[in-house]
Design brief:
By secondary structure, the protein is of the alpha/beta class. Helices cover 46% and strands 18% of the residues. It is built from eleven helices and twelve strands. The termini are far apart.
């Protein structure tokens, strides 16, 4: 029988066609050192066509944890998370992704951080992601290690949002957004701003958007660099470039609604996107020799370090071309050409 105790945390996972990874994610929730009567797991199967439904039913059948399965036609990551929030009984909504593995102390640490945050304006708590590749010794695996992208945390400066490596955070930075692969929010705060914007169908942009809207309401976030979650990242370059396309598309969507974010630094970050992407491309080309030398210092071979720079330049060029196409499409629709 379901527990009659008050649920404190609802873990919400939106999943699409990642049955094998999802299984590992769910098993990591079984090992939590947090009272199982005080949390529930809500998995939203977003129209998966693999054996996700079978994995979920087997998990629900063989665990003593409180598990709720929601299945619907493919609606996208934002709509799926919103469905999970609507069904949640907890005061805190903890998000992770179906390709993540959370540590045993994940929920207890989230609960502790919220109890220590006596400021009523604290809306969310998050932490870094450690990227893991299926074959860590492969060329792709080395590239993932070199990028270390999810350990670069966005910090709100006076002029721009800049990425700072987690090892260099001092603890007094203003974090403008959290990544929902490893974040928890007060349910009331999410409801206050209308939850996730379903216009963000694919992962990429929905995290900053919801956080910027919370910031506009005067809320803040706490970043706990010890709250580490493992993220099984892209196994090939095709998926890497696919993610880049989603990110740029997400940036463009934020550009269209930046007026509601209020903060001028955030608004500026999503203005003149093609020019920003072009500037990023040019700077990458200019500083490639420096980056190549630093990669060698990190014990990557000279050949791999050189290839990494070529791939990154290609990625920056790809982002620039996508931003141009999106801008052109927008202008054509605006002028109804």
């Amino acid at each position: 029988m379901p527990s009659q105790q008050k649920i404190e945390i609802s873990v919400v996972i939106a999943s699409y066609n990642r049955a094998s990874w999802l299984q590992k994610c769910l098993f990591s929730l079984v090992t939590q050192d947090y009272n199982p009567d005080n949390f529930e797991i809500i998995i939203v199967n977003d129209g998966s066509t693999d054996n996700t439904e079978e994995v979920l039913r087997n998990f629900q059948k063989n665990t003593l944890l409180q598990v709720k399965i929601i299945s619907h036609e493919n609606c996208g990551v934002s709509a799926s998370r919103n469905r999970g929030i609507e069904e949640a009984r907890g005061e805190i909504i903890a998000f992770t992704d179906d390709d993540c593995v959370v540590p045993p102390q994940w929920l207890s640490q989230i609960s502790k951080q919220f109890s220590l945050a006596d400021n009523k304006k604290t809306a969310g708590i998050g932490g870094p992601l450690t990227s893991l590749c299926t074959n860590e010794n492969s060329f792709v695996g080395d590239f993932v290690k070199y990028l270390d992208e999810f350990n670069y945390i966005p910090v709100l400066g006076k002029i721009m949002i800049k990425p700072v490596h987690v090892s260099k955070l001092l603890g007094n930075e203003v974090i403008p957004y959290l990544r929902t692969a490893n974040a928890a929010f007060k349910k009331t705060c999410l409801e206050e701003i209308g939850m996730f914007d379903i216009a963000f169908h694919c992962p990429g942009g929905e995290d900053p958007d919801i956080c910027y809207r919370l910031l506009a309401k005067g809320y803040r976030f706490i970043f706990d660099k010890d709250l580490i979650v493992e993220h099984h990242t892209r196994a090939n370059f095709s998926s890497y470039f696919h993610s880049l396309r989603n990110y740029v598309t997400g940036d463009f969507k934020k550009n269209q609604k930046k007026h509601i974010y209020k903060n001028p630094v955030i608004q500026r970050s999503y203005s003149y996107l093609p020019l920003q992407k072009l500037a990023s491309l040019l700077l990458t080309i200019i500083f490639s020799p420096v980056k190549w030398f630093r990669a060698i210092q990190q014990n990557f071979s000279a050949g791999r370090a050189f290839c990494f720079q070529i791939i990154i330049v290609a990625a920056k060029f790809y982002c620039f071309t996508i931003s141009l196409r999106l801008q052109a499409d927008y202008l054509l629709k605006f002028f109804k050409i």
